[in-house]
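agent> fetching stored inputs for the NAP docking request
agent> found them:
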Amino acid sequence: MNFNFHMPTRVIMDEDCILKNSFVLKDIGHKALIVTGAKSAKKNGSLQDVTEALRKAGIDFVIYDKVMSNPTVNCVYEGAKYAKENLVDFVIGIGGGSPMDAAKAIALLAVQDKNKEELFSCSFENKVLPLVMVPTTAGTGSEVTPYSILTNDMAQTKTSISTPLIFPKLALLDPNYMKNLSLTVTVNTAMDALSHSIEGMLSVRSTTFSDMIATESIKRITQSLDKIQIGKGITSGSNITMDIREKLLYGSMLAGIVITHTGTSAVHSMGYSLTYFKNIDHGRANALLLPSFLRFVSKNEPLLVKRILLAMEMETTDEFETFFLHLLGEREKLTMDEIERFAGIAIQAKNIVNSRVVPDKEDIIQVYTRSLHL
Ligand code: NAP
Ligand code: FE
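agent> prediction call returned; pasting tokens
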């Protein structure tokens, strides 16, 4: 057996954990930049809890609340400028993956003068502002990963900045903030997390250790998604029980630990074009492609796929596909021209080779076609 496990983020999960642990923030810094999206952090109570905890701990703060979904490079440069002007010494990201990823890039750019090329090529000096994360969606696992994914207009895709420097120091997980998260965002983000754990198990970098975490994550998320499947009585996000919310948050954090060790693979690489060109939500983009990709892998690695199905209490890839089709509802369509173009982009993505069964361009075209054209 061989593995190399490293997870430097302290994770605290509890109801009201921010207020209960305000003293922990004292060890991190004296003045915080809080990074959020425009609305949700103000509505769901997370921003209020963070500012109250900071006040209690005697820590000064400023707020940058302009992060959009799929954050742009301009947004993180603007946030970094604001951090420098205000002389902050740590960064708190509150929100879904978008504000958390923006917070990570801001924490780097606040102390390093890097242009866009250097940012995406990850050539950094060994300095960064410490990061604290408060996830308010259960999907990306960004609270425990060393990745920040930004919209890269130069390459017309989304590109991952990957450096151990941006491992958060602290992640505070409270499912209460998700009480009013819509059904659509809940399902999309859960499918992203499921995709992380499944892609982790399909990765050449998977180990016995990462598979153990992935299996637990897949179980928790599948059981939760099964309960909230459209048509099973849950009609809005506010009908989802706290027990389910908690399982999803736990499962997505575990999935973040998985991709920290394995990376994502072909499904994410193919999904980025769906988001960049067709504006399809990140988690949904992965879920659209996952069933066909799993079928493709099962031709060469049937036992590996069996292990994933077993964790989901399923027997066949047909069952797997039906499960996703129920969650996805009507699927978007691509033209053959789009498929050709997106396959050309995906084949160049660095994570494609992470796959235990590496698809060639023709295989990628087939996965796109089966998922979004037939
Ligand atoms: P998101 O873009 O962060 O948020 C989606 C929407 O949900 C936004 O409109 C947001 O509103 C709202 N929202 C967030 N929390 C809410 C809550 N508790 N209640 C009500 N509404 C809420 O979506 P995401 O799927 O979490 O993150 C996607 C991003 O993460 C993508 O850019 C993806 O590439 C990246 N990602 C990163 C990693 C990683 O390891 N770093 C892994 C996978 C994916 P506001 O804008 O008002 O906040
Ligand atoms: Fe993802």
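agent> quick read of the result: The chain has a mean pLDDT of 96.
agent> awaiting further instructions
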